[in-house]
Amino acid sequence: MEDIPPFHGFGLGLRRPHYADFLEGAVPVDFVEVISENYMVDGGKPLRILESVRQEHPVILHGVSLSVGSAQGLDADYLVRLRRLVERIEPLWVSDHLCWTRTSAHNSHDLLPLPLTREALAIVCENIDRAQEALGRAMLFENPSSYLTFPEDEMPEWEFLDAMTRRTGCHLLLDVNNLYVSARNHDFSAADYLAGLPLDRVRQIHLAGHQPGEIIIDTHDRAVCDDVWALYAKVIARTGPVATMIERDDAIPPLAELLHELDRARTIAGSCERSAAA
Amino acid sequence: MSALAQRQAAVLGAILDEDAALPEGWGERQARGLAIYRNNYRSALVEALRSTFERTERLVGDTAFARAAAHHCITHPPNGWTLDLAGEGFAETCAALFAGDPDVAELAALEWAMHLAFTARDTATLTPEGFAAATAKFGEHDWERFTLDLMPSLRCLPATYDLLRLWSSLAGEGEADLVSLDVPQIAVVWREGECPVFVLRPEREGRALESFRAGARWGEVCGTLAAALGEEKGIAEAGAMLARWVAEGWIEAVGQ
Question: Which one of A46, A131, A153, A228 is CB 3.0 to 4.6 Å from A116, fit for a cystine?
């Protein structure tokens, strides 16, 4: 199984309102991330656009439907299509979420949280092994944002992720907004989380906006808030340079606005690097 | 069934059905979280249907469409990995819910076929020159027996309304231009380059296309047309149809 080559830089998610920007000119990003499922199709315009963008930028495939936490295992057709896309696009890496989306009967099309049990850990690791074997490469898995926890939980999420990376050789996509959202929703300390997480396995960071409230909702429909920026500074100071991107999926603004946010990530990361060097 | 499988079946059951009992051991805290997942589930599906069936929504209005979409989510909970297929069966849902307005289901079926055509397999189709080359060495017997591979995006749908007028009128915010056809036709949907398109054609042409899709041989299709139109006219019609299909780029290959 191929491991993931070192890569860091600053990127954006490729979303439909920005297709023309990416096709027409040079967009100052080091990589773009796409939702894998949008391109796991037989043919047509989406693949043509992705191939054009790929000629200018390294691409990361970020999935939402692998369902690595499903007790019934992975969908064989899904894996075949994902592998076909990987061979076609040759991405920097392939990522998905620590979550489940479906049972054998139905699909929620949402990233549902797992009970943090030894049984779930064994199933997740088995599914990750199968996915990595099918793709012939190590994958990244993202910490989820969640709105509920399970009474049967046997360990904190960071312990689950630590064991998962050790058993499967996978890497982590640390979504700093998700960490913030879950820490607030479930009343745990983000510092404890980071202390327990194998930060040397983090290969990418997501930053996004959320909807505040009694339960914070991970909406990706607004700018990154100051608290999440502050948490990002703490994370990047400990991980060192890691590929970082702004994730916006709703109320998508003009590209310039997202590039401005990305500059803020560059500034924070640069400042942490200078502090570390001093 | 493992404990995790049981838990996941109970959680998904509670997301799909708000009247379902809370999973075992859950209290108020989990119920509040579950309500968010239930809302996410419904809004994602309804949004996917809105995006696929834009014109159907304009035809029936926001409120009626929202009701139909919610009904479809309950009666057709998705089981595939892609949200792109959430609209599978929505035309049938519309046929049942708008039974007095068959134009709604007809338009929804057309939008679904256009949606599928958008990402259908890419293919090179036979040009008139390519078709001539493929059949250049045909003997008399070969002309009876050849088959046609139609382009993968091509679909035939029944049309009792002038769907071309209806489609254009619903492109913006204008009134729906709904006119019944004097004689039912077939809407042939395919992808031209990157854009799904459709035309209306006589029903017998649609039946001929469907026959080829099912593997019929040229001689069989000619025989059917000859029986309906008479020998001479039937053969002439078959030839004219084939020429149109090649010109439209609907033929991927000639088989034997």
Answer: A153
With an 8 Å Cβ cutoff, is A40 touching chain B?
yes
Nearest to B16 among A41, A106, A149 (CB): A106
Say how many residues make up chain B: 256
Residues lower than pLDDT 50 in chain B: none
On whether both B80 and B128 belong to a single domain, the answer is: no
Contact A130, A173 (CB under 8 A): no
**Predicted ipTM?**
0.94
pLDDT score of B25: 87
What is the per-residue pLDDT across A5-23, written as a single tens digit (0 to 9) for each?
889 999 999 999 999 999 9
Which domain does B105 fall in, by range? 1-119
Classify A13-277 by CATH class: alpha beta
Collect all residues from B whose CB is shorter than 8 A from any CB in A: 1-5, 7-9, 11-12, 15-16, 25-26, 29-30, 32-34, 36-37, 40-41, 44-45, 77-84, 86, 118-123, 152, 191, 194
> What pLDDT is stored for residue A188 in this prediction?
97
- If you search the block for the tokens 């030839």, which residue do you land on? B239
User: Is residue A278 pLDDT above 90, yes or no?
Assistant: no
Identify the sign of the CA torsion A44, B92, B158, B214: positive
